[in-house]
DNA sequence: TGGTTGACTAAGT
DNA sequence: CACTTAGCCAACC
């Protein structure tokens, strides 16, 4: 493990793997934890390649708690199913009680 | 090497 | 209050 070999993507994966089950976070939160909130797009871009990684990408949503990335999953509701399986309420692609379930890496780690 | 892309966010209309 | 515009930054072609 050479941290210097870890690109932004790998860092995102490392953080995403630490998201507790039944909790969620936002792209911006991860981006901010890695340095800058402005890199939120890069986080999303990274998750796009997380398919082959052991990353719980379904626990990462946008700042509104909306499942914006569900279209990148296999099914149309797979992302929601995974979240509900962990006890997260999801209605109309939106996480219920999002603020309570929100997991901030810069505070929780 | 340079230009395009995007699972975002904040601010403006 | 909902939609539009602009800024951002790393990876990909």
UniProtKB/TrEMBL annotation:
One Gene Ontology MF term: methylated-DNA-[protein]-cysteine S-methyltransferase activity
Pfam families, alphabetized: DNA_binding_1 (PF01035)
Biological processes annotated in GO: methylation
Top-level taxon: Bacteria
Sequence ranges assigned to domain Methylated-DNA-[protein]-cysteine S-methyltransferase DNA binding in this UniProt record: 8-88
EC number: 2.1.1.63
InterPro entries (alphabetical): ATL_DNA_repair, MethylDNA_cys_MeTrfase_DNA-bd, MethylDNA_cys_MeTrfase_DNAb, WH-like_DNA-bd_sf
Keyword DNA damage: yes
UniProt KW keywords: DNA damage, Methyltransferase, Transferase
PANTHER family: 6-O-METHYLGUANINE DNA METHYLTRANSFERASE, ALKYLTRANSFERASE-LIKE PROTEIN 1
Protein name per the record: MGMT family protein
Record organism: Winogradskyella marincola
């Amino acid at each position: 493990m050479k941290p210097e070999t870890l690109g932004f993507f790998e860092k995102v994966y490392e953080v995403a793997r630490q998201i507790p089950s039944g909790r969620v976070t936002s792209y911006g939160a991860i981006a901010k934890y890695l340095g800058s909130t402005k890199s939120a797009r890069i986080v999303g871009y990274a998750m796009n390649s997380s398919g082959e990684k052991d990353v719980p990408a379904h626990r990462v949503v946008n700042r509104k708690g909306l499942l914006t990335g569900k279209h990148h999953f296999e099914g149309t509701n797979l992302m929601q199913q995974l979240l509900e399986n962990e006890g997260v309420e999801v209605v109309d692609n939106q996480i219920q009680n999002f603020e309570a379930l929100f997991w901030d890496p810069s505070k929780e780690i």
